[in-house]
Amino acid sequence: MDREQLRAVQAPLKQHYRDQPAAALVTLQASATLGEGISCSVQAGRAIAEAGLHPASGGDGSLLCSGDMLLEALVACAGVTMRAVATSLGISLTSGSIRAEGDPRFPRNAGRRT
Questions:
Q1: CA distance readout (Å), 52 to 16, 62, 66
Q2: Whole-number mean pLDDT of the chain?
Q3: How far is it, in rounded angstroms, from Cα 87 to Cα 75?
């Protein structure tokens, strides 16, 4: 999509939001269903993601970690936004990368009652 195509697609949306500001309030949603063992199936847009424990907290690594999913969503949002803004401003991006990292703390006594 080039600058003119993006502007043509967004122009009626922007006008609609100016005319009806409440229409710009969009609620994103995700839901999950408990799965087998310690897992859940996350309905996210067009796909179902199977999430489970990170190996550092007892998982076997076969399921997605919710922490990784959070970071993936963050970099996806940043990447799409960066591309959209650059396209809208007529800035040509030939390459780029976005990185996010987090340091979860897995307590030594996780699951233990005191």
A1: 41, 8, 7
A2: 90
A3: 18
pLDDT of 22-44, one tens digit each? 999 999 888 999 999 999 999 87
Report which of 74, 66, 2 is spatially closest to residue 39, judged by C-alpha positions: 66
The three state secondary structure string of the chain is: CCHHHHHHHHHHHHHHHHHCHHHHCCCCCCEEEECCCCEEEEEECCEEEEEECCHHHCCCCCCEEHHHHHHHHHHHHHHHHHHHHHHHHCCCCCCCCCCCCCCCCCCCCCCCCC
CB crowding 36-50: b at 16 or more within 10 Å, else e:
eeebbebebeeeebe
Cα torsion 55, 60, 71, 73 to 10°: value is -160
Candidate from 55-64, 87-96, 98-107 with smallest mean pLDDT:
98-107
